[in-house]
Amino acid sequence: MTKFFRLVAFINLIFSHLAVGQSTKPTTVSGQFVNAPFSQFVQTIEARTNYHFYYSPADVDSLRINAEATNVPLATLLNTALAGTPLRYAIDTQNRVFITTDQAIRTELPIGFFDRDGAADTTTIDYGAARTTARLTLETKLFEIGSRSLAGRPGNATLAGRIKSTTTGEPAVGVTVLIEKPRIGAVTDQYGFYSITLPRGRHELKIRSLGLRDTKRQILLFGDGKLDMEMDEEVVPLKEVIVGAQKDANVSSTQMGAERLDTKTIKQVPTVLGEADLIRVVLTLPGVKSVGEGTVGFNVRGGSAGQNLILFNDAVIYNPSHLFGFFSAFNPDIIKSVELYKSGIPSRYGGRLSSVLDVSTRDGNKKKLTGAGGIGLLTGRLTLEGPLITDKTSILVGVRSTYSDWLLKQLPGSYANSRASFYDVNLNLTHEANDRNSFYLSAYLSHDQFKLNSDSLYGYSNQVAALKWKHVFSNKLYGVFTGTYSRYQYAVSSDKRPAEAFRFGFNIQQSGLKADFNYFPNTRHTVDFGIGSTRYDLNPGSLQPTGSTSRIRSDVVPTEQGLESAVYVGDKFDVSPRLSVNVGLRYSLFMNFGPGQVYTYTPGLPRAESTILDTLNYSSGSLVKTDHGPEYRLALRYAITDAFSVKASYNRMRQYLHLISNAVAVSPLDIYKLSDTYMRPQVGDQFSLGLYQNLRANTIELSAEGYYRTLQNQLDYRGGATLLLNHHLETDVVRAEGVAYGVELMIRKMTGKLNGWLSYTYARSLLRTTGETGSDVVNGGNFYPSSYDKPHDVTLVGNYKINRRLSISFNVTYSTGRPITLPLAKYTLAGAERVYYSERNQYRIPDYFRTDLSMNIEGNHKVRKLAHSSWTLGIYNITGRRNAYSVYFNSVGQAIKGYQLSIFGQPIPTLTYNFKF
Amino acid sequence: MHKQAGWLRWLQGALLLTVGSCVDPYRPPEIAAPNTFLVVEGNLNAGTGSSTIRLSRTQNLTSANKPTPEQKATIKVEGTTYSFVETAKGTYTLAAATLPVGSKFQVRIKTGDGKEYLSDPITMKQTPKLDSLTWEVVGNGLQVYVNTHDAAAKTRYYRWEYEDTYEFYTPFESQLEFVNGQVVQRTGPPINHCWRTELSNNILLGSTARLTDDVLQKAPLLFLSASSPKLNVNYSILVRQYAQSAEGYAYWQNLLKTTEQLGGLFDPLPSQVGGNLHCVTNPAEPVLGFLDGCTTEQLRVFIKRPAALSRSLIRTGYEGCFTDTIPKPKQPLSVFLGPGGGYNAISQIEGTSNYVAAGIACTDCRNIGTNVKPSYWP
């Protein structure tokens, strides 16, 4: 019994809005009160029983009691008497009755109050057992939510709260909170916040998530209330069987074309140089392709690499790569989760046509200081995290760097002059001021520098910061206010020939402010809305002489300025338990403003330097061009059975910032361009339809998605276009329209000893120039494959746990070779044979096939250990297939020879040591 | 030490990606269609002088034949009475014409199959003088540079062609000749001393568009390896300079990019390089080449091997030469010295009927050069 009381008190401690301490000894009372003052009521009761009341007269002076009771427990009488008032009561074991406003006082000390130091977890089994007991009692205990006085009232009430991890205190993201009958569910957001509107009454609330142990709560819902929960992580329990959790989000959510990856999945996919690489894992998902190895830019559903919005804690990352793309810019130890949206993109995102890759980092451990790190062949990394104020403020710092510079110096011969190095630094600060306000600060800095046997030194850098304030207005409404800053810059310099020593630089920066709100009006609607604005400042290119003897003429392309603003609203509406609709509208407005210069061209002729008629000068702050338009978002789901659903979506996206690159991959020499008089905003529409089926108690997911996209105002380039230091880029680009369509099939098993996925994609991506004359027309104005059109793609990603300490991961990938422009004929000109190329992208490089294998060996699982470590041994491209990155032809002397360049043409072994403390 | 070397090699292979080691030959699938597009090469000579245009046809990549010259075409300069004359197969010359600097001309070509081609208007440009050619030892070789300037700063775009000539000797001198089954004293100029002339076979461009003044200093022209037989006896180079229009420069630059500079990670996509000629009869038919017009400037220099380049590095190409004694038993002299025998006699071995001989390639330089001394040779 005592234990039970202590538990009640414990629950009270956590769930402060809990109404009543109810389990008192039933000493019955009788009486009839008609409009009786409270003091009279108390006198009557005290006279007839041995209860004593404690209350503040000020709380009750206006209260009149109307109640009638015959031999009922005091609690029952008080329930009736105090119904509809803010007053609460508590009765302790000595028959003392405490009347308070809003909240019943606790009559017991919290559990473990006196024996805090005695918490025995010296052995794993005891530790696990203690946890289990705590969890089980929480799972069977009935939580009363809201004021009991509302009992029996029909209708709905909203339950909200936060879910955290028991071990680290960090918010648990993407946790599903649901009841089965009727089927109503909610998912925690990136702050671990959920809000669910349920019919009043008793429910079993199921809480499920990947990587966390499923749990449940028994609730009795009287009215709106709050329920915070903690979830245990699925730590390696040595003698426990993990029961397959029912992961049914695939079928039940309206979201389609979205993939969510957690760190565990990211870390188990074999990678090229031993370091877990987020982008490489994203590339294994259906619908995501890259033009070749060693490139970080990726193409989603037939879109170009510049059409992906890559968000790092809500701030934009322009170059997500390190070391020519062999590493991704994200330190794997600090990533919490990654979400990739390919279709049905929620209305809160905008600004890019093809996809959103939303990377969020961990907040840092709020309970104790921990760290993690790794040492690989080329890189080392270290992450430290811990509380500044326990349970309130945490800090996380991550650093990653290479020692490749040092390695290059050790190499003989031509590499001695080469240099290649990078580092990145992350800092996250999280502060939970109180229940309603939390603050998040995240900063990221990366820098790359390389020089490969050439005389030019390349360097680029990302600088990103985001500050967020999350405010909970009520159970039904919360808002997040975010300020972001991103800067990307690169430079190329050379001083080999002093007379022509130069430095070429480019930078883009954006600062944005936005407010996002989530509103949960009732069971059937989840509304989000917001407003935001981003200012862009571009320095599209500057060439400067360096050193006193340089005769380079300085050349600076005028800066560009723009302001992109958007408002949006979206509503997830559960029409019936089977049918759910997600509608959204975003309206975006882009203003390009001065100072700036715009050239006018002779009408009817292709734009060229020779057809420039006039130059219009715009003063600082004056509007050069305004573009705006609506973006529609619609998604719906119809569940045919609990395990089978159909989803459809339509979305329109607008993009005002264009990536200018005539190389196939994202390279450090790409530039960005804002929409202006000639560069029209890109507009993309996507229709998609999908079928989802879960088998074997939701352990196996099957999905089939098809899509059709149209893309307007795409950019392609005239032959031999000059893109750098071009003061009138409009003369070198051609406008094109695109279509892309495809089908993605996937079978996935996320639990069990063997897990992973197999996907097949059929996809096409075609472009057609819309110009009328001469050089504005590519391939005679007909549709031609884009450079990233790879129709067939098969990927198998798997992980097999041999035992607790040893697991094997593998990755098999096949795809059609990407399109290429091939030589058709040869001729002699200027003393050498030359080749005449085909129309653009009419042929393909050889198909791509690769198999990787890696083995993860964990140290022993003793709980008390200085550090937990693991070794990752892997082989990339185990078959050694020389996959062509590109195919090219060179004239060597009098002959024309074809070559194919493969970047990882042999099996590459890797070894990484990881540790955690 | 050994272990480290292995480790390093492994690292090199595994990590360092861009250079050389992962490049394989690639033979594209048969591209069957017989593409025979017209190729136009040449220059209109501004001012007074002769102009030459060469016409040929494209071939399939797999074709082993020499490019086919386009014969029996007529080439006219629009708006004038000037007409080119076919002086050799596919080579058309306009002997004496005046095309004033600053004026614009169009060239019309009519081929034997009745098709007509027309160039865009070509502006005649004045080519500035070549100031000098300089050279210096760079690494294991000699780098030759061009220096030029245009005081009026009008030229901005330059293109060069060169022909270089070197003097060389075969390792053995054959003073005897096999005539009518008899070994006789050789007459005429010696055949062990020759001059070989080569034409530039890459596109050489320079631009001052990004410089404040129209001055090119030390623009790289060619690199002579220390092992080259060119820098052995004497060497001469003649450089021709052409002022280019911006479009012409862009064309050559583009051609250079798509045929000489592709293959790196960050290189641009190859593209169809369009010149300034169009087919009038079939606008869809591509025409390759670019016709520009300018005066020609040229400069010749002689270069001696600098002392800094060790002579021991020279590879003459005659390293495999040896002498032999002929005839052999059962093989008469004619087997060696007759047609197809492959030998030239160097001298008779005294007191015998045997000869010291060497292969023709080791005694006769005329297979790769000419034994006629060029008029400009000192």
From TrEMBL, chain A:
<keyword id="KW-0812">Transmembrane</keyword>
<keyword id="KW-0472">Membrane</keyword>
<feature type="domain" description="Secretin/TonB short N-terminal">
    <location>
        <begin position="51"/>
        <end position="102"/>
    </location>
</feature>
<comment type="similarity">
    <text>Belongs to the TonB-dependent receptor family.</text>
</comment>
<keyword id="KW-1134">Transmembrane beta strand</keyword>
<protein>
    <submittedName>
        <fullName>TonB-dependent receptor</fullName>
    </submittedName>
</protein>
<keyword id="KW-0732">Signal</keyword>
<keyword id="KW-0813">Transport</keyword>
<dbReference type="InterPro" id="IPR039426">
    <property type="entry name" value="TonB-dep_rcpt-like"/>
</dbReference>
<dbReference type="GO" id="GO:0009279">
    <property type="term" value="C:cell outer membrane"/>
</dbReference>
<keyword id="KW-0675">Receptor</keyword>
<dbReference type="Pfam" id="PF07715">
    <property type="entry name" value="Plug"/>
</dbReference>
<feature type="signal peptide">
    <location>
        <begin position="1"/>
        <end position="21"/>
    </location>
</feature>
<dbReference type="InterPro" id="IPR008969">
    <property type="entry name" value="CarboxyPept-like_regulatory"/>
</dbReference>
<keyword id="KW-0998">Cell outer membrane</keyword>
<dbReference type="InterPro" id="IPR037066">
    <property type="entry name" value="Plug_dom_sf"/>
</dbReference>
<dbReference type="InterPro" id="IPR012910">
    <property type="entry name" value="Plug_dom"/>
</dbReference>
<dbReference type="InterPro" id="IPR011662">
    <property type="entry name" value="Secretin/TonB_short_N"/>
</dbReference>
<dbReference type="Pfam" id="PF13715">
    <property type="entry name" value="CarbopepD_reg_2"/>
</dbReference>
<dbReference type="InterPro" id="IPR036942">
    <property type="entry name" value="Beta-barrel_TonB_sf"/>
</dbReference>
From TrEMBL, chain B:
<dbReference type="Pfam" id="PF14054">
    <property type="entry name" value="DUF4249"/>
</dbReference>
<dbReference type="InterPro" id="IPR025345">
    <property type="entry name" value="DUF4249"/>
</dbReference>
<protein>
    <submittedName>
        <fullName>DUF4249 domain-containing protein</fullName>
    </submittedName>
</protein>
